[in-house]
Amino acid sequence: MDWDKLRVFNAVAEAGSFTHAGERLNLSQSAVSRQVSALEDSLEVPLFHRHARGLKLTEQGEILHRTVREVLSKLNMAEARISESRERSQGPLKITTTVAFGSVWMASRLKEFLEHYPDIEVSLVLTDTDLDLSMREADVAIRLTAPTQPDLIQRRLMNMHYHVFAGPGYLKKYGMPKKLADLDEHRLVVFGEDARMPVPDINWLLEVGKPPGQRRRAFLRVNSTYAIFRAVQAGIGIGALPDYLNQETGNLVQVLPEVRGPVVDIYFVYPEELRQSNRIAVLRDFLLRKIEEIGH
Asked: How far apart are CA 213 and CA 79, in angstroms?
């Protein structure tokens, strides 16, 4: 059954005449009559008794009218719920980001977000590999690279600066490097070969200040930023870390402040189909406010 014909049939059943239904639908009486006749032909049953005082539903017409009314009611309810989801901050919201950013920066701010929006059911998925937003593995991602898929919307949140850090315990035991060449004699914590971080020259700490082709020896290799952060906190060695980690914890010491590593942009990413989602919008705006507060 063609939905356009069913819609016209329902209008006729409600109005009781082709003329009044045509006025409601902005169609001519003849166009309405043709649609109803075509529906009757396809069903091979009459849907109306036609008489001088107007139209009256047949038994088959009554059955169809009840069903169409139920369908219309459910569609209207669905439309209202969809509209409500755009206008109200409620429902599930799955957020994915890297282990380090999610554990240190994001998690500490979720308390305030959830207090503002208690009806949003947040799930935070921390992984250093990208989940497929198009397949709805998550609703929104906070990523260190801009997406290339055309069906994803992106907004740059902040830029992330890398510097060199050590723990107070390590510096007390091994001393503070005074110049780049001093790093040759220190214990460096860097990424392992299997790390998949979208940072140019991921182990730049091994090469900075060295002649081309020469590298310092790594003391410990791990496969995530968060692991380097925890190792440096524990006093294992010196590591290159995003500045937000120390801004959040304040328990590391910046080494060789004049040495600056890569600058990486952080993006807020979500699927095109969620463009009108109120949950996405309030999270984006909240994060932008928090970033503005810290001056990034």
From this structure: 63
Mind listing the pLDDT tens digit for each residue in 191-209?
Answer: 887 666 666 678 889 988 8
- CATH of residue 23's domain is 1.10.10.10
Q: What is the CATH number of the domain that holds 213?
A: 3.40.190.10
Long-range contacts of 16-23 (CB under 8 A, 24+ apart): 16/54, 16/55, 17/54, 17/55, 18/55
pTM of the predicted model as reported, rounded to 2 decimal places:
0.65
- Sorted by sequence, the CB contacts under 8 Å of residue 69 that are 6+ apart come out as 10
Whole domain around residue 273: which residue ranges? 91-159+265-294
Judge if 144 and 82 occupy the same domain: no
Number of domains in the chain: 3
Distance CA 239, CA 231 (A): 8
Domain-ending residue, one of 87, 121, 150 = 87
Pair (290, 219) in one structural domain: no
Q: For the segment 69-108, what is each residue's pLDDT rounded down to a tens digit?
A: 888 878 876 765 665 555 667 788 999 999 989 998 998 8
**Are 224 and 270 found together in one domain?**
no
Angle between helical axes of 18-25 and 29-43 (0-180°, round to 10): 110
Q: How far apart are the first and last CA of the chain?
A: 58
